[in-house]
Amino acid sequence: MQTDVEVKQEATIPLTLETEILALCNDNPKGISDKSLESAVAGYDVKQRVTAINRLLTMGKLELLKGSSGLIYRIKTPSAVGSISGVDNQEKLVYQIIESAGNKGIWTREIRYKCNLMLTEVNKILKNLESKKIIKAVKSVAAAKRKVYMLYNLQPDRSVTGGAWYSDQDFESEFVEVLNQQCFKFLQQKCENAEKETTLSPTATNASSFASSEEVLEFISKLGISKVTLSPEDIETILNTLIYDGKVQQTVVPVANGESKKLFKALKPLIETTDFARTPCSLCPVFNECQPGGEISPENCLYMDEWMEY
Length: 310
What we know:
310 residues; alpha+beta; 10 strands; flat
């Protein structure tokens, strides 16, 4: 009799856990990370958690995504195609193809290939869905004369729009240069302030000279020089260019929960560099491939032009 009771208890655990997981995902519409989920249901062992997640994935209640910090679980919303009125089967097919592409969109050629319809029919369907504001066409920075299609309510992926560095498909070189200068200025000030603290040991002074991308972002935000909302990842992109220029160094330090964090510090040259060392050629990663009249050559080198003007 005791054995029967234990079996029933074991059977109810996955169902209870599945309910808890669904509730957590409902509270986090954008998804919940694997680590956060593990912490939230710490009362269950790994086997029980994996079993419950796999059941929810199999039943189509959850979808598994890959984020920058790892796996993400999100409530899977049913396709809206069934609730759309006034569309025929061919339009529903095209809708589902576009829906599956997500916020990265899909080219007309790929849609035609997947639905096996004539180009004229595909174009007619796309115009009809666009007019009803069911889908939208978005210009891609990857190809100036081509558009991708996605659901009307989706925010295009950075790979489509180019992110903060593009405006109407044009690369904002001046904006990037200003950010480059201000990020470096902040790191220089960080170093100078650390050196003024005479009570600190050399090790502590060095540690105080480093800053995270979040700190740099806070500084940039207060300046008000950006018309778009920047993220720590955007700032890290700028900081990486400073690293390539030999102006900044990066280190990685451990933080809580076994994770790590990138920190950045402005570099000061030990000796004054010579005029030759300042030339782009001295730091160029493709120096050996550069030759007059070649695909990479001094004639079409933007860095050389800037150096000559300077």
